[in-house]
Backbone:
């Protein structure tokens, strides 16, 4: 039984390399496109079982009599387990079969969503007492447990995707392909917001959890058929050899000649890599603003600007949808203008984000059109650094052999920021009102600008020493 379980998730062995060039070209053309769209759809669907809670917060808080701080704890339970899981599952994903690892995680995430909503059906606040505890307390613990478990399985989504993109696309095309794929996050948030808003309006807040769960289960089954692991497991050569271009200089011929253990490579390229550490710390503050706006914007618009839930959800969807263009723009500019140097575009985007936040907060409640525009700008200028700092920059600053682990490492720090964002925003709202929350987000963005500036100086000095 144990061996069958391990073999199910174990990375498949490499097949003998195909020598027929036409067959190799045809297979690469077919599977690169297939891997890309499957990974894209998978990550979109992952989000509908994660960001659904953002739209449900106002209705949940009212129905279950939960304070903003308690609602923040729910979000933190997911972010803590997601952050830890992203690192651990990142290490596992480097040696796991993408084809089985990712779909299984998606289905288990869906089951957690079903358990989450069932908890609220079977435990009613103020009606029952368990072991001397108020039922409201027991319910909060159950909700935190299942939402935390959901975070763990959600954390299994990104690492295998990072592995796939690293092995199926070469360095010269990875910036553009990665930025295009990263729009799956914004489209996923958009889909989650629209689906959850529709479900709540027609069927009540519980539908925002069980309807996405069914979609995730169906998609997970479909992904078992679509996904594949590394090209070599199909008998294809390494992607750099296929495209007749050299590997990244610092890792040249690494796949063929580097005989070091996984831990030795991990130690050099992650644990003792100062660039990875700076990226990871910056990622904390990127995620404070990212999840602060994504998770709390609907509640802010309902309570501060008096928007109906449908209108507030639509404004959040503009943040997500336009954010997709921000990710593409950041990837293309950093590839074409800055020649692969990602840090300058991060700094520019973060400064624009500060201005967008200030404009959004100052905009009068009756001016809905400008709210849509400012929300879209917040999404655009958040998604660029979010895609680059903890994603592409982390992979390019490490080794392809530890691609998933590098993503997982920065992800741990990112979700420390997410947990701080969720509970911290709830606390700031309860203690200082919504202006306190806006100030919390602005300070976090400013700190990230400072860290990225230090990173830019470090990179320039390192480049000068190398040239000398």
Residues:
């Amino acid at each position: 039984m144990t061996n069958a379980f391990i073999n199910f998730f174990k990375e498949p062995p490499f097949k003998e390399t195909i020598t027929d060039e036409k067959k190799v070209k045809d297979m690469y053309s077919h599977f690169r496109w297939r891997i890309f769209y499957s990974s894209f759809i998978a990550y979109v669907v992952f989000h509908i079982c994660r960001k659904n809670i953002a739209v449900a917060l106002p209705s949940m808080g009212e129905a279950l009599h939960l304070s903003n701080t308690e609602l923040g704890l729910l979000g933190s339970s997911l972010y803590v387990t997601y952050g830890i899981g992203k690192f651990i599952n990142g290490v596992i994903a480097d040696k796991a079969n993408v084809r089985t690892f990712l779909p299984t995680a998606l289905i288990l995430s869906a089951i957690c969503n079903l358990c989450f909503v069932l908890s609220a059906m079977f435990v009613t606040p103020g009606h029952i007492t368990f072991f001397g505890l108020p039922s409201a307390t027991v319910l909060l613990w159950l909700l935190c447990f299942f939402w935390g478990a959901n975070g763990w399985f959600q954390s299994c989504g990104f690492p295998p995707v990072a592995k796939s993109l690293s092995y199926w696309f070469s360095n010269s095309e990875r910036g553009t392909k990665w930025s295009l794929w990263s729009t799956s996050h914004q489209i996923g948030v958009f889909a989650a917001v629209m689906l959850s808003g529709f479900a709540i309006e027609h069927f009540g807040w519980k539908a925002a959890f069980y309807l996405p769960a069914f979609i995730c289960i169906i998609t997970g089954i479909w992904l078992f058929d679509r996904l594949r692991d590394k090209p070599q497991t199909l008998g294809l050569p390494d992607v750099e050899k296929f495209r007749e271009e050299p590997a990244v200089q610092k890792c040249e011929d690494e796949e063929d000649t580097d005989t070091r253990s996984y831990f030795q490579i991990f130690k050099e390229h992650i644990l003792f890599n100062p660039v990875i550490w700076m990226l990871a710390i910056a990622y904390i503050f990127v995620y404070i603003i990212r999840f602060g706006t994504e998770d709390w914007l609907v509640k802010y618009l309902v309570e501060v600007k008096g928007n109906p839930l449908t209108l507030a959800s639509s404004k959040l969807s503009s943040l997500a949808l336009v954010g997709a263009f921000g990710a593409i723009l950041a990837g293309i500019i950093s590839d074409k203008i800055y020649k692969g140097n990602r840090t300058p575009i991060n700094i520019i985007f973060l400064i624009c984000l500060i201005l967008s936040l200030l404009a959004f907060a100052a905009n009068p409640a009756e001016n809905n059109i400008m709210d849509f525009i400012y929300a879209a700008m917040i999404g655009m200028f958040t998604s660029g650094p979010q895609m680059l700092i903890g994603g592409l920059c982390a992979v390019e600053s490490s080794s392809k052999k530890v691609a998933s682990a590098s993503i997982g490492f920065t992800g741990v720090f990112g979700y420390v920021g997410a947990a701080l964002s969720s509970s911290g925003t709830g606390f700031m709202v309860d203690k200082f009102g919504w202006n306190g929350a806006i100030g919390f987000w602005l300070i976090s963005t400013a700190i990230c600008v400072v860290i990225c500036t230090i990173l830019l100086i470090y990179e320039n000095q390192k480049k000068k020493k190398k040239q000398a």
Residues 248-256 have pLDDT under 50 and may be disordered. The chain is about 80% helix and 0% strand.
